[in-house]
Write a structure and sequence with these properties.
By secondary structure, this protein is an alpha+beta fold. The protein is 27% helix and 39% strand.
Length: 135
């Protein structure tokens, strides 16, 4: 998609996605693309998250195989999709794998139920801590 975690600003991501023809919804600290293709799969939602106006995390949610339909009854199981994604990521980043997370110390790729997540580690930690500032 041509954006960089930990570097790209919200306006840069907005412009890049707009130029690529995506439409999206906005949240206070995120942009959401609905039904977008990435890495050979169609994702129900891709969420671009920001901290201090800088992209720190991208969440890929609910993948499917383009062209398949639940209505046709011919659908690749989500578990198979995630196995394929894990295999591809492992082939590229195996040396960074520890406890199921691919990390170079600055950025990590991890899986959560129904999600593939890329994030800047330090910024994600700050964003997590910022959630509790109002307490």
């Amino acid at each position: 998609m041509g954006v960089t975690i930990g570097v790209s600003t919200k306006s840069a991501v907005f412009n890049k996605l707009t130029n690529q023809g995506y439409t999206f919804s906005e949240e206070p600290h995120a942009l959401n693309i609905i039904d977008a293709e990435y890495a050979g799969y169609k994702w129900k939602k891709i969420k671009f998250c920001y901290l201090n106006n800088v992209l720190y995390k991208v969440e890929f949610n609910d993948p499917s195989v383009p062209g398949e339909s639940y209505w046709s009854g011919n659908v690749t199981p989500r578990a198979t999709i995630f196995e394929n994604l894990s295999y591809s990521i492992n082939n590229k980043y195996k040396r960074y794998l520890t406890n199921g997370i691919y990390s170079d110390g600055k950025t990590q790729i991890r899986f959560a139920p129904g999600q593939m997540i890329y994030e800047n580690i330090a910024m994600a930690k700050k964003a997590g801590n910022a959630m509790y500032d109002d307490l």
